[in-house]
Amino acid sequence: MTETVVPSVPVAQPTREPGRLWHTFCDMNTVRKGPEFTVARAEGVWLWDEAGDRYLDGTASLWYCNVGHGRPEIAEAVHRQMLTLDAYTVYGDFANAPAVRLSERLAAHAPVSDPRVILTCGGGESIDTAAKLARRYHAVSGAPDKVHLISRTGGYHGLNGFGTSVIGMERFRTGFGPLVEDVSVVPHDSAAALEAEILRVGPGRVAAFFAEPVIGAGGVYAPPQGYFAEVSRICQRYGVLFIVDSVICGFARLGDWFGIERFGARPDMIVFAKGVSSGYLPLGGVVVSGRVAEPFWYQDDHPFLHGTTYAGHPTACAAAMANLDILEREDLFTVSLEVERQLDGALRSLADHPLVSQVRSGTGVMAAVELTEEALAERGITTAEVFAEARMRGVILRAVPTALLISPPLIITWEQIDHLVSTLAGALDAVAARH
Ligand SMILES: Cc1ncc(COP(=O)(O)O)c(C=O)c1O
What we know:
Layout: H1 28-31, E1 39-43, E2 46-49, E3 54-57, H2 60-63, H3 72-84, H4 97-109, E4 116-120, H5 123-140, E5 148-152, H6 161-166, E6 183-186, H7 191-201, E7 206-211, H8 227-237, E8 241-245, E9 269-272, E10 284-288, H9 290-298, H10 314-329, H11 332-348, E11 356-360, E12 367-371, H12 373-378, H13 383-392, E13 395-396, E14 398-400, E15 403-406, H14 414-434
Parallel strand pairs: 3-13, 5-6, 5-7, 7-8, 8-9
Antiparallel strand pairs: 1-2, 2-3, 4-10, 9-10, 11-12, 12-15, 14-15
Helix pairs in contact: 3-10, 4-10, 5-9, 11-14, 13-14
Bound molecules: pyridoxal-5'-phosphate.
């Protein structure tokens, strides 16, 4: 998730005045007036600022640090790889051993038929890769009019060109002039709405449908029962490629490799990033089904002329391999299901808080605590204020316009979950008392 909300109240741990770093996703005119929150070091679920104060990382940074911070074996793998082959392109016929091994490993676990793996440097880049590949696939398969891309309300797909165009949150699309054309958004919880939209646009014009298994940045919304099975059938019926965006949900956050397995669907492509390397180095990619790969792999004159300089970066791939070793060795796939239950149980205690209208949790190690309309609209309370209050009390959460989001590292203990939730409760009480 990438919704950085600037706190509207000063935090108690100013570390230094802003310098020349232009922070991402924020109003620098606000940030420059206050102290920067400088993270100095991290270990496990904990962060320390430059003053030495400790915070619980309730969001695994931006939903990515699944194995927790400060894992020596990832650092050692990176060090070893740097001394062997630091970096080299995978353009043309160039390959490197870590990129080949990582692709094999991901393909072995992906719920995709006969998979191939394209590597990138992150989620948004992977979304653009998948969108271009979908359009190109139809073009080389004799259906050049199939260009329309459909996504869901609340769906977040990064902020590159195609991602900004298909995002399901209007506020991220405006102000940039014309975006990619031939896109539309359907309600996130209705397979019938997807079918109606395909019929409205015309099945001969629709290239692909994008969906996160559980919507993350858009506010943590799990799919209705049977949704993805129905969506898969609809996509198949109309020759629409089904592209799952597992950037948040993959790598054990939902208890499996790609976050879609528990819903029983087999997509045409899966976009991944974040947890594949737990963010130790930037890495993402797209798992592509053999059917979609076929014209590019087995027919002449269909090169896929797309890629980026650092795709298949051997050191990033080595970090990912060490990260996946930890996920498997510590069986974080099973552990996360228990963490999911514990977090869900603990958060239930907030459902009755007077500022809270809804707690959404229980599908994956991710949750949203939604504030009431009365608190937001009438009392003038902001989620940014709750965020700032919680951070002042030593817990990092993520604020989106109407909710606080929670997505800790998967190694979080029961005591730490309890600390996170009781700190959030205290922050809500303090904010309520101020208004
Ligand atoms: C579901 C989803 N897709 C794509 C992205 C974009 O990834 P990146 O920020 O690495 O470009 C994100 C980022 O939060 C995401 O949550």
